[in-house]
Specification:
mainly alpha
Length: 202
Amino acid sequence: MADGFNEARALRVAEIITDFRMLQHQISQYQVAPAAEEYYELGYDVLRQCIAEAQAVFSAHYPGGLLQVPSSNGEKEKQQLQRYAVESSARLRRCDATTDGMHVSVMLDASARRFQAQKIYLRAVAAVRWVNSRNTILQGQRPHAGNAAALRQADTNLRAELSMITDQRCVEDLRTKDYQAGHWLQEDPPLQSILNWIGSQP
């Protein structure tokens, strides 16, 4: 696309992929091992869902076969993501009138991945907050009649927090961060385009 903005587009994709990588790292830190009798408690269940969803997002194929499915090797995944950002940026710089859609699909893919990671991250943080609250209530003891009300309240608080993690909130959080960082947002896709892109992926 010969309009003078390909450098800005390339930089924007690199910024989004950097955010995505940071979210990936943060989510990977939220690994907990509950006791067998607590395995199906609400917060632990939510956290397992987050980890599974994160793995699906992180291991999905990238456009044009730029990346293979990541292994469990964190350094290899980092190198692959960096290569994706570099090659995507190079493609954007080469865009011309015959490849108008390329920059759109690359931007959409990167934005969708970051959006999904942000939503997973917020839910994981809420679940970890629940874990910490539960541990404080139990103080190393087993649940009993004396702490049952407090445990129920922790569950209620988690459900309320999860209900506030909407698609719109995730986009607004990301946009606020981007504005504060002074990023070029002229061609960032709107929420509906991101959701449509996610829905169109196999």
